[in-house]
C-alpha cells in the first residue's frame, strides 16, 4: 500500500521555523538542476562510498507561470558553439573557481537573469552534517523540556559537526562499528559514551558549547530509545536524495516544479504520493530532454555556478575570503556583485527560495566574498 505524504505538515513546519505564511499561495514555475548528486551514501569498513567534492545542491530559476524565455540572442551573445546543442555550465566557464569568475559568458548570463527579473532558488545540503544530525536530534526529541538545549541546538550541532569533521576517519569508524544509523538498544549507551571520548580527545579546556555538547551526549547515554538512529537501514547514511526533491514540491504546492531527469528519484517519488488539503498533489514532472527546454538549461548554469560559489567559501573564514578579493580582476568582482544582487533580489521576493541544511558557521561566509 502506498504511503501518501501530506504537504500540510511540511508547510506548518516551515511557517513555524521561518515565519513564512503564504507559501501555499505562490503560483510560480520552478526549474531545477542538481550538482553533487551522490545518489546513495553508505559506510563500508569505516569508509564512505563517495569522495565528497562539495555540498549537494538542487535548484535553478523561478519565473511566473507559463513564462518561457527565448535564449537565441543569449546564445549568440555568449557565442555558444552550435555543436553544443544546449547550454550547460561547462560551456560557460571552466577551471577552478577563481578562473570561473573570469568568464565573461557567465557575467552575461547573470545579467540576463537580472534584466529579465528571473529569481533563483537553491536547496543546499552538507552531506556529512546531514548524516550526523540525528545523533543530537534523538536526544533533543526526548528532552525537549530543556529550554537551553532547544535555544542552543543549532550551535550545539554546529560544534558537534566541526569536532567530528576534524576527526572524520575516527568518526566513520565509530559509526561503522555501531551499524549507524541502526544502533541497537543494548549498545546505545556505549555509542554515546564512545562519542564523548572521541570529542574529549585533545581537549584541554571547555567552553560553554563544549559543556552543552557533552551534556547532550551524556543524556544520550541514558536513553532507552534514540528515535532517529535506530531501526534504520544499517550503514546507509542517505538511501537516496528524493526527499529533497519532494520537499520542494511540498513546500510550494500550488507552483509547478520541473526537475531535470533523474531516474532514481523519479522512481522513488512515484511509489509515494503527495497530497495537499486532502487531495492528490501532482505538481511536478521530470524533463527528459533538456535540449528542448531553455529554462532547464538556465538552471544548469545557475546551480552549477552558485554551488561552486558556496563550496569555494565553505570552510574559509571571512578574513581568508577578503584576502582572495584583494587580487580579483574587474570582471571577477563584477561577477560577484551580480551574484550578490541575484541572491538578495530572490531572497527579498521569498526567503523560502533558499533552504540550507548546513552548519550555521557555513551559512553566511559567502557574504564576505560576494558584495
Describe this structure in words.
- The chain has 371 residues and is of the alpha/beta class.
- It has two domains: 5-125 and 238-368, no CATH class; 128-220, no CATH class.
- Helix content is 49%, strand content 14%.
- It contains 15 helices and twelve strands.
- The strands form three sheets. The protein has a six-stranded mixed β-sheet.
- A hairpin with a 2-residue loop joins strand 3 and strand 4.
- Helix 9 packs antiparallel against helix 10 (208-220).
- It is globular, with a radius of gyration of 22 Å.
- The mean pLDDT is 89.
Trace the largest sheet across and list its strands: 11-8-2-5-6-12
In total, the number of strands is 12
Mean pLDDT: 89
Taking pLDDT < 50 over at least 5 consecutive residues as the criterion, the unreliable ranges are none
Distance between the termini: 51 Å
Calculate Rg over CA atoms. Answer: 22 Å
Share of residues in strands = 5-15%
What structural class do the secondary elements suggest? alpha/beta
What is the count of DSSP helices, taking H or I runs of 4+ residues? 15
Amino acid at each position: 500500500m502506498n504511503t501518501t505524504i501530506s504537504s500540510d505538515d511540511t508547510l506548518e513546519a516551515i511557517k513555524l521555523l521561518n515565519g513564512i505564511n503564504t507559501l501555499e499561495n505562490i503560483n510560480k514555475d520552478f526549474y531545477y538542476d542538481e550538482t553533487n548528486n551522490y545518489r546513495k551514501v553508505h559506510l563500508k569498513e569505516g569508509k564512505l562510498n563517495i569522495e565528497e567534492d562539495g555540498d549537494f545542491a538542487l535548484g535553478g530559476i523561478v519565473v511566473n507561470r507559463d513564462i518561457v524565455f527565448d535564449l537565441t540572442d543569449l546564445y549568440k551573445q555568449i557565442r555558444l558553439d552550435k555543436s553544443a546543442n544546449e547550454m550547460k555550465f561547462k560551456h560557460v566557464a571552466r577551471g577552478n573557481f577563481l578562473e570561473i569568475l573570469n568568464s565573461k559568458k557567465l557575467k552575461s548570463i547573470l545579467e540576463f537573469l537580472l534584466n529579465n527579473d528571473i529569481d533563483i532558488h537553491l536547496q543546499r545540503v552538507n552531506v556529512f552534517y546531514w548524516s550526523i544530525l540525528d545523533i543530537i536530534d534523538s536526544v533533543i526529541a526526548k528532552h525537549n523540556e530543556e529550554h537551553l538545549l532547544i535555544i542552543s541546538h543549532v550551535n550545539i550541532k554546529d560544534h558537534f559537526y566541526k569536532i567530528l569533521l576534524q576527526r572524520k576517519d575516527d568518526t566513520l569508524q565509530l559509526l561503522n562499528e555501531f551499524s549507524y544509523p541502526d544502533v541497537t538498544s543494548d549498545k546505545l549507551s556505549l555509542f554515546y559514551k564512545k562519542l564523548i571520548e572521541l570529542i574529549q580527545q585533545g581537549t584541554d579546556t571547555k567552553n560553554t558549547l563544549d559543556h552543552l555538547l557533552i551534556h547532550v551526549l551524556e543524556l544520550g547515554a541514558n536513553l532507552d530509545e534514540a528515535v532517529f538512529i535506530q531501526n534504520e537501514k544499517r550503514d546507509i547514511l542517505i538511501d537516496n536524495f528524493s526527499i529533497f526533491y519532494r520537499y520542494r514540491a511540498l513546500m510550494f504546492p500550488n507552483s509547478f516544479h520541473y526537475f531535470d531527469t533523474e531516474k532514481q528519484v523519479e522512481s522513488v517519488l512515484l511509489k509515494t504520493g503527495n497530497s495537499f488539503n486532502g487531495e492528490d498533489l501532482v505538481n511536478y514532472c521530470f524533463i527528459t530532454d533538456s535540449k528542448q527546454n531553455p529554462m532547464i538549461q538556465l538552471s544548469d548554469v545557475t546551480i552549477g555556478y552558485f554551488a561552486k560559489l558556496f563550496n569555494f567559501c565553505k570552510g574559509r573564514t571571512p578574513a581568508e575570503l577578503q584576502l582572495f578579493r584583494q587580487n580579483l580582476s574587474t570582471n571577477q568582482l563584477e561577477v560577484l556583485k551580480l551574484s550578490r544582487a541575484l541572491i538578495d533580489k530572490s531572497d527579498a521576493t521569498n526567503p523560502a527560495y533558499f533552504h540550507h541544511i548546513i552548519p550555521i558557521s557555513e551559512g553566511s561566509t559567502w557574504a564576505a566574498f560576494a558584495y
